[in-house]
């Protein structure tokens, strides 16, 4: 029987189709996160094929494949999962924050954690969320190995010091370079007084997705001239394709000082000073206590003899504060356009009376895919911050100096409203609060746009244009009832406008050769221009205290304006090469030019190289069920520091007036040989992960050697100049860093994770051709830690007569120190007595998830540093001055045979109050930095409301501090010491940190 060919062909095709459908099926499923929220845009790949699909807005997907075929499901920020295809699949993706394929932001690109040959520390939004602090830096404290973050004092706007692997300069900037979404930030303190304002206070922490800190030279050298102090890369939140998401976070709480010092009450004050007077003039001299005497004068008509007056000035200065923070964000998009919009309001009432902050902020991030080749984006941020300021630590208008007042003086007059400034020992700070004002308004605009064009699949070009505008205006007024009474009031206004433009253009080339060889190239250029304008005017004499602007002044007493500008022009390149996914090589080079340096040394070259060996990919380990990652890495590189004046290399003249005639006078000496301060850094590290990544971490050892230190070198007075900026000397930082992350328990209901970091620091000055540099209580000396304390050594009290004693520490003939004691301060020599930088730092974070409960806490510790209390000569001076004293004075020497460390009280006479180690203390501490407890309502309770998540939480900051330090706070220091000042580790009426507890609510729609 004959069958026509076309019929036969039809039968064969039908048979093949039936066979195919018998083997393949259409499988459906849903992808969610751990909490059950759908994940739109997740990628699904049939392993070993070209079949791919994505989840829709509700997390659903369908795929044609064989039953049991392996599906690879992935999403950015989540752990990639492989499962077998089956009907009705329900896939939950876990957070990927601790996985090896986590993507890190690096300079001008990204790289997976597994392939990193650098040392980069990272915190994410999850690490920082719900920490009630006004700035994002404080939210990272204790979470980064080798990174010390300290707010100078407890003022809400207080400057923040971030030190990455120690201090690498003497007079140049010690702050890292901050970069947000590729745009280098203005980070200049523009305070109108010696008390700094944190330049980044205007950033909203809730807008930040992640922060990467480039610690070693291999990672930081791509930023060349400004990488010595580390680079902080801030990435803000972006939208994701899928359903529009609305997130609301609202919280409120209260604050108080972490610690209050103990001061004499009225009875103790009377006892101490009566005794001090008797020791000086004899018991029969009653100049303090007689009717109409000094004590009567202080008490302003109140009977101090019966305890009618006993003022606690500290309680007037340190008050209960409050904090409220409200954030609203909306994000979403489709396959072409994604967006993120947020608005926030923060109000912080400080723990120091009269100090507060209000911040309003907005952010809009937009990313649009124009075509398969072109993508564009725009990130914008606007903020307004208003700060009610108080005086610097070294001013009587600052509330905390009120502790110097005698408790015998009432704070108010008899009406209980009007501050008493008639009988107080010093100026009553309440006069300024009631009759003056000091406001700072900061308006900040950040814009960063980009366009990225894919020339060919392997090659793309990206151009970025950034703009940072920081406008700050400070207005100060002191009325006719303040310390400016003699001029019938005083006012000044200080306005500063800073602008920065940044242009980055670079090519990115990624190519895989024969599957085993991967090359990543970045080549480009960068240009930055920064300008600053300042106007200042002051006046005195006001017709009324209600007229508070300089415009109303009877006389303009001062006025000035200035303009300055500088720029950077840079070319950079980086090559990363991976062989067999286990041998890693990277090299980078940056060629930086700056207008700040002399013509002969304007450009600097900053190379870096690193290598890595992923041993766990070798045949003898890759099949191990125990080892997931074992990677050796090493790096070397050169970074720079350009944190000096804009015209430091030039000989300058400025205009002035002489006899009402215009004139020009010399202002600065020329130094055309001025060049970059450079730091060579070597880093050796080991990354590891065991037991299915349940144990992971890293171990590092680094050595940083800084040469050609930029130093404002003091000059002899006979030269007619005070200093000259020169390249002088060198110093070294070295230390170990250890990070350990563990998943202690992981079940369906309970997860417990821990993260421990430990870092050591050894800082030494290795070369200083000009010899020792001494400033106040600090010294820069070869072989010692920079800014070490240089003090006479206190030896206690002579039990026979109550004299303060000091160790002579003069040199004996054999070269040893004479440890005999003397009561004559001038006979004792100063010695190195400690340093202001910790030698050991640690942080421990634990996170526990149980059903719908979450609990986390972070402990932070520092050891090895000391603090010198410059105010000790007034606060603990054996009643030499009339200032109120600390309660340790009640343990003073009073009779022969007394064994104590507090000398005899002697009014008006020095007896141990000279600068010595008596006022130097170790600041070792362990602090419960933050603690958070939250509860997420079950979905069954909220699904009818159309809400994805409702979480209630309570968070605390600085709840506990364990220390033997007797001052206000082991982290609070004098706010009049800038980076260029050699004096470090000094406390002077410095406000403590705030202890804060808040209650909050998260709502996701």
Automatic annotation (TrEMBL):
Residues 420-778 form the TonB-dependent receptor-like beta-barrel domain. The keyword Lyase does not apply. Belongs to the TonB-dependent receptor family. It comes from Flavobacterium pygoscelis. This is TonB-dependent receptor. The keyword Membrane applies. Keywords: Cell outer membrane, Membrane, Receptor, TonB box, Transmembrane, Transmembrane beta strand, Transport. It is found in: Cell outer membrane. It is a multi-pass membrane protein.
């Amino acid at each position: 029987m004959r069958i026509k060919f076309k019929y036969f062909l039809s039968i064969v095709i039908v048979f093949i189709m039936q066979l195919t459908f018998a083997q393949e099926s259409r499988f459906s499923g849903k992808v969610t996160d751990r909490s059950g929220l759908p994940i739109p845009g997740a990628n699904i790949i049939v392993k070993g094929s070209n079949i791919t699909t994505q989840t829709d807005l509700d997390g659903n997907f369908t795929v044609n494949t064989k039953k049991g075929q392996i599906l690879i499901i992935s999403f950015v920020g989540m752990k990639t999962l492989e499962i077998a295809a089956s009907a009705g699949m329900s896939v939950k993706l876990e957070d990927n924050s601790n996985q090896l394929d986590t993507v890190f932001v690096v300079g001008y690109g990204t790289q997976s954690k597994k392939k990193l040959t650098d040392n980069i520390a990272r915190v994410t939004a999850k690490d920082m969320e719900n920490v009630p602090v006004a700035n994002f830096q404080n939210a990272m404290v204790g979470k980064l190995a080798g990174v010390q973050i300290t707010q100078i004092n407890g003022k809400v706007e207080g400057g923040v010091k971030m030190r990455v692997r120690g201090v690498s300069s003497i007079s140049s900037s010690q702050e890292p370079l901050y970069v947000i979404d590729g745009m280098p930030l203005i980070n200049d303190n523009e305070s109108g007084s010696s008390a700094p304002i944190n330049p980044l206070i205007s950033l909203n922490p809730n807008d930040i997705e992640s922060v990467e800190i480039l610690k070693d030279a291999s990672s930081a050298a791509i930023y060349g001239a400004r990488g010595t102090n580390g680079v902080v890369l801030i990435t803000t939140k972006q939208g994701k394709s899928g359903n529009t998401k609305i997130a609301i976070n609202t919280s409120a709480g209260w604050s108080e000082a972490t610690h209050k010092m103990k001061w004499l009450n009225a009875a103790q004050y009377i006892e101490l000073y009566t005794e001090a007077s008797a020791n000086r003039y004899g018991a029969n001299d009653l100049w303090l206590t007689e009717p109409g005497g000094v004590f009567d004068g202080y008490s302003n008509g109140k009977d101090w003899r019966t305890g009618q007056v006993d003022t606690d000035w500290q309680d007037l200065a340190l008050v209960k504060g409050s904090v409220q923070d409200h954030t609203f964000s909306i994000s979403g998009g489709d396959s072409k356009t994604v967006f993120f919009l947020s608005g926030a309001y923060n109000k912080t009432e400080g723990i120091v009376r009269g100090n507060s902050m209000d911040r309003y902020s907005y952010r809009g991030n937009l990313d649009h895919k124009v075509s398969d080749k072109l993508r564009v984006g725009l990130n914008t941020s606007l903020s307004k911050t208003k700060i009610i300021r108080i005086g610097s630590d070294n001013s009587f208008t600052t509330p905390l100096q009120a502790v110097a007042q005698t408790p015998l003086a009432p704070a108010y007059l008899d009406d209980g409203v009007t501050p008493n400034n008639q009988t107080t020992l010093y100026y009553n700070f309440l006069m300024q609060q009631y009759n003056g004002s000091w406001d700072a308004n900061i308006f900040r605009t950040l814009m960063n746009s980009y366009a990225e064009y894919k020339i060919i699949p392997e090659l793309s070009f990206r151009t970025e244009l950034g703009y940072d505008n920081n406008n700050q205006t400070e207005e100060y007024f002191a009325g006719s009832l303040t310390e400016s009474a003699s001029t019938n009031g005083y006012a000044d206004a200080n306005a500063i406008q800073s602008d920065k433009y940044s242009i980055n253009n670079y090519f990115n080339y990624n190519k895989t050769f024969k599957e085993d060889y991967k090359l990543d190239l970045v080549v480009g250029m960068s240009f930055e221009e920064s300008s600053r304008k300042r106007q200042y005017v002051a006046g005195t004499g006001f017709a009324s205290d209600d007229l508070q602007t300089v415009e109303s002044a009877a006389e303009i007493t001062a006025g000035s304006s200035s303009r300055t500008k500088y720029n950077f022009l840079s070319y950079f390149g980086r090559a990363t090469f991976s062989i067999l996914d286990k041998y890693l090589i990277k090299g980078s080079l940056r060629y930086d030019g700056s207008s700040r340096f002399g013509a002969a040394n304007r450009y600097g070259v900053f190379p870096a190289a690193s290598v890595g060996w992923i041993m766990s990919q070798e045949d003898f380990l890759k099949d191990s069920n125990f080892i997931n990652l074992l990677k050796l890495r090493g790096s070397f590189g050169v970074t720079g520091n350009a944190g000096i004046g804009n015209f430091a290399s030039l000989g300058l003249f400025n205009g002035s007036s002489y006899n009402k005639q215009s004139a020009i006078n010399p202002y600065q000496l020329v130094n055309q040989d001025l060049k970059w301060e450079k730091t060579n850094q070597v880093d050796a590290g080991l990354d590891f992960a065991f037991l299915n990544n349940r144990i992971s971490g890293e171990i590092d050892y680094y050595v940083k050697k800084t040469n050609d230190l930029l130093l404002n070198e003091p000059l002899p007075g006979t030269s007619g100049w005070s200093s000259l900026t020169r390249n002088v000397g060198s110093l070294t930082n070295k230390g170990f860093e250890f990070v350990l992350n563990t998943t202690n328990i992981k079940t369906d209901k309970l997860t417990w994770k821990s993260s421990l970091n430990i870092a050591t620091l050894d800082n030494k000055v290795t070369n200083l051709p000009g010899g020792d540099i001494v400033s106040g209580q600090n010294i820069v000396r070869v072989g010692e830690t920079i800014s070490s304390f240089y003090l006479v050594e206190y030896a206690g009290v002579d039990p026979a007569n109550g004299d303060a004693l000091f160790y002579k520490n003069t040199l004996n003939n054999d070269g040893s120190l004479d440890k005999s004691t003397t009561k004559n301060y001038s006979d004792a020599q100063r010695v190195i007595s400690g340093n202001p930088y910790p030698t050991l730092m640690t942080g421990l974070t634990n996170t526990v998830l149980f059903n719908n409960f979450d609990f986390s806490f972070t402990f932070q510790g520092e050891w090895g540093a000391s603090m010198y209390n410059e105010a000790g000569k007034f606060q603990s001076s054996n009643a030499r001055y009339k200032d109120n004293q600390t309660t340790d004075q009640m343990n003073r020497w009073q009779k022969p045979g007394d064994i104590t460390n507090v000398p005899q009280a002697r009014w008006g006479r020095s007896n141990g109050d000279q600068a010595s180690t008596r006022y130097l203390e170790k600041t070792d501490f362990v602090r419960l930095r933050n603690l958070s407890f939250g509860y997420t309502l079950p979905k069954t309770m909220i699904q009818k409301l159309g809400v994805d998540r409702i979480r209630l939480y309570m968070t605390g900051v600085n709840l506990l501090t364990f220390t033997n330090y007797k001052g206000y706070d082991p982290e609070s220091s004098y706010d009049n010491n800038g980076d260029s000042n050699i004096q470090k580790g000094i406390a002077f009426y410095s406000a403590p940190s705030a202890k804060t507890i808040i209650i909050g609510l998260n709502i996701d729609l």
